Every structure is written in structure tokens, then in C-alpha cells.
Amino acid sequence: MTEPDIFGTPERLGMVVAGSLTDGVEVRLDGTASIEDVKVGTFVTLQGDRARFFGVVTDVSLRATDQALASMPPDVSDPYIASVVSGTAAYGVINVEPMLIQDIEGPMPSKTIPAHFATVSPASEEDIALVFGAEDERNFWIGSPLDMESKLCLNIQSLVERSNGVFGKSGTGKTFLTRLLLIGILQSNSAVNLVFDMHGEYGWKGSAEGGREVKGLKQLFSSKVAVFSLDEASSKRRGLTPDYVVRIGFDEVEPEDIEILGGILGLSPVAADAAHFLQRHFGGKKWLSEFLSIQGSEDIRNLANTVGVNQGALAALQNRLSRLKRFDFMTDTGQGSVDRILEYLDRGMHVVLEFGRYGSNLTAYILVANLLTRRIYARYMERKERASGDPSSEPRPLVITIEEAHKYLTNDIASHTIFGTIAREMRKYNVTLMLVDQRPGDIDDEVMSQLGTRITCLLDSDKDINSVLAGAPGGRKLRSVLSRLESKQQALVFGHAVPMPVVIKTRDYGTSESYRELGWKDAVELKSQMEQDAADLFGPGEE
Amino acid sequence: MTELDKTLDAPVGEVVEASTTELVAQCHELYESPPLGALVKTGGEDTVYGVVAEVATRSLDPGRRPVAMGAGESDVEAIYSSNPQLGRLLSTEFRTVVVGHMANGRLNRYVAPLPPKIHAMIYPCDEEETREFSGSLHFLPLLLSAQVGSPDDVAAAFLRGVSRSHADSRAFLVGAGRELASLLGGDIHRLNGILRRLAHD
User: Fold this and answer.
1) CA distance A66 to chain B (A)
2) How far is it, in rounded angstroms, from Cα B54 to Cα B49?
3) Is the pLDDT of residue A3 over 60?
4) Would you say A300 and A290 are in contact if contact means Cβ atoms under 8 Å apart?
5) Closest alpha carbon within chain A to B196
6) Which value, to the nearest 10 degrees, does the dihedral of the CA atoms of residues A481, A484, A489, A492 take?
7) Helix axis angle, B169-183 relative to B151-163, nearest 10°?
8) Chain A residues within 8 A of B198 when measuring between CB atoms
9) Does the distance separating the beta carbons of B182 and A84 come in below 8 Å?
């Protein structure tokens, strides 16, 4: 093929001239390929003697055959001299990390590198489809490779098998990516979603930059999505009647739910621990309401003596926990919110829990997310164990989406929380997490290391970048790729759901065409389809 | 046969010194040497190709140096017409660098196993032959390393001349320039020098 490709030059970019498996290969660019057209993160193919490799450009550099070139540059004002010298005496080199090798069974992780002089070309649409799969029920179109139009797909089945992370500075498109992933999961039917929607962006209307409104999941897939709300008034103001209004009973709160709040509430470990003593003292369900009803320092002192906890710690605990009373969603007795959520999930409905005005209150968010997740997870465990290997009676795989994880999945407490447990145990009990976060560096290393697929938009703090890339094959080389992503609509995807790391331009979301591509039908289309269905069913109506 | 063909077919000189890498030829006519960088060949079966790398006119007898004789004459042509013996006392010679040969009907762009005989006729190459020979430039190292006064000028003159026989002379020069750049990659000054000579064509 000699047709001009995306680079506007013949197919070939250059050839392999040096390299190693650990450092990737060096590719000398042909004189015809301009180094300015080759971007870090570009997907390329390397055709060796016998094998075909797929790789990612990790660095670009300028070289000269003679060091004197730098001090005595040729007269490039003459177009002839410029065209001769560029690409010959002065040339470009790209570093490529070979990721996959084409095998009879398909692309496999590469354990070797192409031989000297292997030809390197930009990947074609067929290559993309070969490596990432064509769009179908299992493969969800998430975006396109850099500078290409072809559809790049994620394997949703692999995605939901493990916990995942969507990372990026604020304003880089995490929310849009997450919406797409949720839709991918929804469309593939491979799992049900439970989204703890902090800022009301996933269920009903979300907002894009410039105040533009974008549709939420409920608007696109109303029959498959239920929106639960903690703050009915806020939901109604936004034009949504929630499917269910969630209430949390004081009798539902357990000491473990308080433990995770320790950092946020500024409780000392002793104070946080005291909750366990209180539960033992007051009994299972009443402990919190009884404890909060105690008034006066005298009573506190007596209680402290009885349960054997420092009085100051106990007073602090009571003081902080009394904040929970300010939450309207807290009631004396629970109203079965967990059952209701599970009921919807069992029917294959995807549940988005909106926090309304509590979204900005981290205590409320963590309390509710942790409390509900712990109970749902316990039920899943129980049902999974009961099913004991019979796949038909197993609960549907569940993906729980949580935001701002760096505030409560930190090194010191992650191991105590339910989210830490879920991340560690992976798919054992059919529950996995999707972390949406802007400071992955603060998330517990162990949780990060268990993430199957990481999708990361631009990050600029070294700590965050290191944490996201930790343990990724070729992580060191992906740094340059990650730190040079554009600030909008670009993400680096690597891990379980893609065969090799790849930079994508995220698929459009927010235009009516994009909704239609996602399977949404507007009122006119729905009506005509209903008429068509009726005609198919009953025969054409009488004239 | 046209006038042009006749000129092309006529030998321009004959070999007076021969080695595998170099031929020195004496012109049949004074001052009738092919120009620097021209592609020439020997006649006969085992054609040897060379590129003119040096042209010199001097006294046939090394002991007898020419003396000034133009006093009273208006110009150089007048001196020659009033001294016809000069054509016998002086001779024009050119040195060629061997760049290829024919063997068994095949064109090889490297030095011949044996030099041609002394007195072998030397002919200029016509445009088509020049184009065919320059279809590949793998012989350029022979020119660049020739033991002559200014091999870079020879190479530049050769490429400039040859480019005119190609339909797209610019593309040919760019290709040749790239070949030079890969040969002289370690000597950017020399490369610059040749490219400047080619650029101002």
C-alpha cells in the first residue's frame, strides 16, 4: 500500500535500529516521515522477519550522524539542502514499546522484540480492530486512537471482572468517561451498576463545560435505570421524581460505619474504637440513638467509666456523631433501603443514588456509601456462598461506582473499609468497584495495585502519576505519555480490559447524534417504532 | 546519421595510462576534452566507464615549457592561428576515475578486474547511457575517495551533469543528495560543501 495515510506520507514510518525488551526499540524515521507528525502514545505496528508486533510510541528524539551538525548546521534556508539533510544526516528517532505480538490465536503479550530493520508503520484500522476487537455486545466503543477515526473498544466483560479506576485532574473528562463506561456495562448486560453519585451527574441531567446540559443514564435508558435520592427536594428541583427516597436509620449504623469516618470527623483512634464498646454496652441496634440521647457531662462520665473508655474521647465521639442528626435522611429506624436497592439490582436495573445537597458533605457521602455497600456486599457474599458454584443462582455481578476515594481509601484506613475489602477480593463475590478520583496518589497502594483496568486522563502531580502507573508493564515509559495527554477528552487506558496500553480520544457524549449512537431514541423515533411494532404484531391497520 | 550522432560516436581521446582505478587519456584534438564530471567509456567489448576527474593541457615534452608568444597579437585565437605548430607541441589530457564496467553484457558499477589497453579509444556517453548508468548511485564512494585534486567538485559536477539526463532532475538531485548524506554522515562539513555546489545549479 502506498496510499497516503493519516500522516500524509507513505505508510512506512521507519525501521528498527536498536533496542531491548526492557527499554523498548529505537526506530529511525525515514526521511519522508516528519517527526512532528509522530506523537507520543501513537499506536504503531512493527513488521519483523516472521512476526508482527504492536507497540506504542513512548518518546521522540532528534539525532544527527555527525556531532558537528549541532555547531555547524547546514544552510537549510535552501530548500534543496533542507530536503536532503532532513531525515539523513539529521534524523528523527522514535522509541517504541512493543506490547503485543501477533500469534495464531491473536495478539499476545510480547516476550521478545522485532529484529533489526523491522518496518514500522502507523497502525491501520484493521490493526485496531484486530487488537482491540470490533464493536459488539462485549466490546464497547470507548473512543478512538490518537489521530485516527477507527473505533477502539474495551472488553466490558473483562472490565467488570475486576475493580477499575478512572483518574484525572478535575475538568479532564473523568465524569464523561465514567458515564460512557456505565453505559457500556449497561448495554452489555454483563453487570449491574450501583452509582454513589456525589454531584448528581450520572442519573439525571449532568452538566458539561459552558453550562451545557447533558443527559444522564435515566434519560437515555429509562427502563433500565432507577434513580434513588437522599434529597428528594433537590431531585425534584432538577425535574426528576426519584424512584425511591433513601432513608438511613440510626439503628442501621454500626461501629464499622463510624470507623471509616474517623479521619473526616477528626476522631482519634481511641474515640473511633469506642463505638465498639458502646455497641456492646447498649446492644446491637440501639447503641447510636441511646448514646446520642445522653446529655450532660455527668452522664458521659458515668458511661465512660462503665464501658472503660477515656471520657474526653467519648465526649468527642458524641459531639461529632451528633452531626448525623442534622442529616434529614437519617431516621430513627431504617426503612429497608438496602432491600429496595437489592430488589432493583436483582431485576437487572441499574441504580444511581443521588446525594443532592449532601453531595458536598463528605461525611454524609462516606457514611451512606459505606453503610449501603457493607450491607449489599454482605448479602452478595451470602448469596454467592449459597449458590456454591451454581452459576445460575449466583447474584448478578455488581459494579459499585464511588467518587473522591482518596479521602477515605487512604493508606491508614483502607484496609478497614469495605471498599478496601472489595478491591482486594476482586470478583470473588461478584462485586467490583469503579473508583472515580482526581488524586490517585492518596489512595491506598494495595487498593491501587488491585485495580484491573485503569483509565486515566491528564494527571500532573508526580505522586499521582506514579501511583496510577505502579505495576503497569512499561510503566516508566508510559509516564511521558500520561503527562502529555491533552487536558480534554484524552485518556490513557491500560490493564485488564485492553490487550495493551493505548491513548484514546474519548467518544463524544452530549450531542443528539452521540445519544443516538448509544442507542437512544427520541420521541418521534419511538412513536414510529411503536407503530411499526404494532403493525408487525396485528397486521396493517384498516385504511 | 545526424551530425550529433557522429560527434557522439567519435572518440575524444585514447588511453595513455591505465590502472584499475584510473585512466589517463590524451585528447585527439587540443582542448577537446570532455568536461569535468562527464561520464565517458572505453570502446570495445569490455567497456570501462569513468568520470572525468581532472583535465590538463601541457607541453608534450616535459622539458620544454611553453613561452609567452602573444606580443603584438590581439587575442589568444590569433596566437594559435599564427603558430599552427602549437597543436603539435601541446596536448590536452584528462584523468578519469573508473566507476564501472561491462562484464558479460551486464553493467557493474564498480571497478573492472583489469584496466583497458593503452590506446583504447575513449568515447563520451550519450544521454540515455548516462541516465541508465546513474540509475543507481552505489558507485559514488569511488568518486568521493578518488585521488584527484578535488573529488568533491568531481562528484558535484558529475551529479549536476547527470541530473539533466533525468526527466525530474530535481528529484534526482534530492535522491543523490540523500545518498551523499548517508555516505558523508560523519563529515558534515564536506557534505555541506557538496550540497552547496548542487543547490546552486
Assistant:
1) 5
2) 15
3) no
4) no
5) A81
6) 20
7) 150
8) 80
9) no
Number of H helices, E strands in chain B: 8, 7
Q: Does B199 touch chain A (CB under 8 A)?
A: yes
Task: Match 485532574 to its residue by C-alpha cell.
Answer: A169
Q: Which chain B residues are within 8 Å of A89, Cβ to Cβ?
A: 181, 184-185, 188, 191
Residues for chain B: how many in total? Answer: 201
B195 touches chain A (CB under 8 A): yes
d(CA A273, CA A30): 67
The CA distance from A146 to A144, in Å, is 7
Q: Are strands A398-403 and A431-437 parallel, antiparallel or unpaired?
A: parallel
List the single residue in A with minimal CA-CA distance to B192.
A74
* Residue contact A84–B181, C-beta within 8 A: yes
Q: State chain B's maximal CA–CA distance in angstroms.
A: 58
Q: B178, A80: Cβ pair inside 8 Å? A: no
Predicted model pTM: 0.73
**Which region among A253-262, A494-503, B11-20 has the lowest average model confidence (pLDDT)?**
A253-262
Residue with grid cell 562484464, as numbered in its chain: B103
Residues A295, A296, A299, A305: is their CA dihedral positive or negative?
positive
**H or E element in which residue A20 lies:** strand A14-20
Query: Which residue among A31, A72, A87 sits closest to B189, beta carbon to beta carbon?
Result: A72
* Segment B45-87, tens digit of pLDDT: 889 999 999 999 999 988 888 988 888 888 899 999 999 898 8
Please, which residues have CB within 8 angstroms of residue A303's CB and are 6 or more apart in sequence? Answer: A281, A291, A294, A314
Is B185's Cβ below 8 Å from some Cβ in A? yes
How open is the CA angle A504-A195-A512, to the nearest 5 degrees? 55
Helix axes A462-469, A475-483, angle to 10 degrees: 130
d(CA B140, CA B126): 20
Minimal Cβ distance to A89: which of B170, B174, B191: B191
User: Is A74–B192 a contact, with Cβ atoms under 8 angstroms apart?
Assistant: yes
Q: How far apart are alpha carbons A474 and B162 in whole angstroms?
A: 51
* Interface contact flag, A80 B188, Cβ < 8 Å: no
Give the mutation candidate from B137, B191, B197 for the A interface (greatest A CB count, under 10 A): B191
Q: Identify which of A310, A244, A239, A246 has the alpha carbon closest to the alpha carbon of residue A273.
A: A310
C-alpha count within 13 angstroms, C-beta hemisphere, residue A43: 29
Alpha-carbon span A98 to A114, nearest angstrom = 8
**Residue of B174, B182, B189 with shortest CB distance to A80:** B174
For B124, the grid coordinates are 563520451
Coil, helix or strand for A148? coil
Residue bearing cell 463510624: A258
Residue B193: closest C-alpha in chain A: A74
Q: Which of A80, A83, A86 to mutate to test the interface with B (most CBs of B within 10 A)?
A: A80
Three-state DSSP at A29 gives: strand
Q: Are the beta carbons of A68 and B198 separated by less than 8 Å? A: no
DSSP code, position A37? G
Pairwise CA distance, residues B11 & B113, whole Å? 23
- Mean pLDDT lowest for which of A39-43, A216-220, A301-305, A366-370? A301-305
Size of interface A-B (CB pairs under 8 A): 61
- A90-115: per-residue pLDDT in tens? 889 999 988 889 877 778 888 889 99
